[in-house]
Amino acid sequence: MIALKKKIKAAFxxxxxxxxxxxxxxxxxxxxxxxxETSANLEIMLKGKENHxxxxxxxxxxxxxxxxxxxxxxxxxxxxDEEGRIEVKNLQVPNxxxxxxxxxxxxxGDPVIAKILGQKSASMELQIxxxxxxxxxxxxxxxxxIDFSSMHKTSNATANLPGNVLLDNTSxxxxxxxxxxxxxxxxxxxxxxxxxxMHGYALKQRASNNGPIKGLEFYVxxxxxxxxxVVATEIPLTNPGExxxxxxxxxxKGRYIKFVATSPHLPTAQFINLEQLGVY
Length: 280
What we know:
By secondary structure, this protein is mainly β. It has strands spanning about 10, 15-20, 40-50, 60-65, 75-80, 85-90, 95-100, 110-115, 120-130, 145-150, 175, 185-205, 215-220, 230-235, 245-265, 275, 275-280.
């Protein structure tokens, strides 16, 4: 049996924390060819970050890229048991494994990637934020608004720009209202620069009910040409500056997202503002 000479422990971010530990033994004969291992059992456990409660019945996808393979392939799709555990048996080694949430119960976070070498077994524990918070939004660094319906121009060159929705501040995108407001629908397209797996959307208008949005839609695309509608819903009229989160029924994946505001809470206010827009 191949085993590492010492224990290796690595930490991976999965919102707050994910820890991957390879179990192994001290063995002076780790390079004996006749004892090479070709498979390992992978145990995965999910726990809530807030109080470390086990997360039962949570959907998870496991992708693997064995040595010699160029791409990841799905090797397991299922749900955690009553103890929050999943076991993937006879996983080919050496291997690179990618673990993704496939559920809309909780924010997804970025995939966790780890190497599995020659151990008979390996284990992974994920501590997941079970409550949504603004930090759940994916990092938007480098993202770009590449198309939009309108904006209100002023002498301030940075005011009301559509790209302001990607900034972590109180700058806003404001649709045009000069010479009569541009009517609904209002929309913008964001290029995330690479394909992302999304479990939901979050948006916030500025701290005033000036142009509150009611109906909205979200679309996703791989090429900015062919679009799939993944959300059509309404959000309540709430306190100014409050975050609205919209969970997807199924995870969606794509490089481009399109936000469309379809109707207002106040029929006389045909314009909108949007302070932040993100995905999780």
